Amino acid sequence: MEIFRSLGIEDEVRAAGAPARTVSRTAWYTSFDGPTELHGRQIAARDAWGGGSYAEEYAAMSPSSYTMLAQIRLEPILRRAAEERPEADIRFDSPVTAVAQDEDGVSITVGPTADGTVRHIRATYVIGADGGRFIADELGIPMSGESDLVDMVSAHFSADLGGVVPDNGCLINWFVNPDLGGSIGSGYLYHLGPWDEQGRSAEWLFACGFGPDDPERFDEEEMKRRIVRSLGVEGLDATVHSISHWYINAVVADRFRSGRCFLVGDAAHRVPPWGALGLNTGIQDAHNLAWKIAAALRSPELASLLETYETERRPIATTVAENSLHNFTNHGGLVDKAIGLDPAAPASTGWEMFADLWSESGSGLERRRALADAIEFMDHEFHAHGVECGFAYPRGAIAGDGPERALPVDPLVYRPTSAPGHHVPHVWLHGGAGRVSTLDLADGGRLALVVAPEGADGWREAVASAVASDVAPLAALVDVVVVGDDRLADPEGEWERLREVGPRGAVLVRPDTFVAWRSMDMPEDPGRELELALEVVLAADLQLVDATTGAGVS
After folding, report:
1. To which H or E segment does residue 354 belong?
2. pTM score, two decimals?
C-alpha cells in the first residue's frame, strides 16, 4: 500500500478493498453448522493484520494501512493506472515465445497470436513477471527449495453466507474437522467482495488439501459437495466461478538476473500463502528494480545499480519463503497437536478429543492451555510486523554504517531506524498542502537528502559539488529536503527523535524509500563525503564500505 501511495492509487485500492472491520481477525471452527453439538463450534480466534489490538502499533509505523483486496480486483486498477501514463503501451493476446539477448539488447518473439500474427520486439531490458510460466526456464534459471509439498484445490464461488459466517470481522475462517483429516484437509474460507454497506461479501474463496477419499480432480458438483462438508451447511446455494489446482511450494530462483533480463514476483519466488506476503514481495521486487532501470536508461553510467537488484531482493525472497514454510508447517500442526488430533486415528477419536477440549476435565484444561499457546505462537503468521516492514538490505545500493551498527531483525517487532539499508521511518510532517509522510519525500525516481535547517546550506553545497564530480549522473538525481522549517514542519519532534543523526547530519533516501546512506554530523568536507557515499552506492563489488574512509570492511 505504501508503494501504491507513491503511484497515486492508494485511495482507489483502499476504496475497492474489504471494509477494515471485516479483516481485523481470524478464527478456527469445527464447522459453521452440523449434526452434533461439537459441530458449529468456534475453536479459537485472534486479532491479525494490524487490526484490533494491533491497530495503534501499525498506524504509528506507516502512512498506509493494511488493505485486503483480491488480485482479480486489484489488476484492473493497476491496468487503468498504467494506461493513463503516456509511456505505457499495454498489449494483451501477446504470448512471448522466445527471448534472445546480446550485448546491446534483447530480442523478443511475440506470438503467434489468435490471428496467427508473429511480431518481434527489440528491448533494452526485459522484466519477467509471468508467474514462473516461461521466462525463467527460457533463461535457464532453476528454482531451489521445497516443492509440491501438499496437493491443494481452491474454488472461487458466489454464495449468500451472511447468516452462515459467525463473525463478520474475520477475513479467514479455518476449519479443523476430524472427518476431513484435520486442518489442511478441512480447508479455509475467506471473502473476496464486492462488499455491501454491512460489510457482507458476495464472493468467496475456499481452499483445502486433497484427502485420501477425494477425486483426482474436482469438478463443479464435487467442489460444491466439499464446500458443504467443510462449512457444514446443507443446501448451500453456491455458484462456482473457477476451480484451481495447485501445489504448496517454497522455492526461489537461483538467480534473479540473466544479462539484460530480470525476474520479479512469482517468476522469481513462489511461497506458501501462510503469512500472505507473496504478492507484497513481488510488488516490492518491481519497486526495487524500476527506479534502477529508469536511472540506467537515463544515464548508462548508472547501469551498475542493476547489479544490486538480486543482491538486495533474493535474500528477502528466501527469508519470506522460509518464514511462510515455517508458518504453513506450524499452522495446522500446532493447532491439531494442541487439541490432540492424529490424522492416522479414526475420525471418532478426533471428535472425542474435541469433546474433552471443551470439558471441565483436567486434560481438557491442559488442551485449552496448549491451544491458547499455539494461537499466540501464530504471531509469526498474523502479527509479524518485523517481517512485514522491518526487512533490510545489508548489501546493495547502500553505503553502510558498518556491521557494528546493523540492527538485528525481530520478526515480530518493527523497530524504525534510519540505518542504511532500512526502510526510512515514517513520521507525519506538516507542509503547505497538509500532512506529508517522510515516505513521500523521495519521489519521481529521485533521491532525497533529508536534512535539518542547521545543515541545509552545507548539504546543498555538497550536492552541487557532487554534481560536478565523477558521480554526476547519480548526484543529479539528489534533492535536498529540509525538515523542520516553516515549509516542512516537524511540530511534535518525531522526525528529530527517529532520524538518529545530529542537527547537521543527513539521511539519503532512495526512490524506493530505503535509506542509502547517512552522515551522523556535518563532515569537514561534506561534498567529498557525499561523493564517496554515492560511489559506494554505485559500486558493483557490493561489499560493505565505510562511507567515512571509503575503505572496505568485513
Report:
1. helix 347-357
2. 0.93
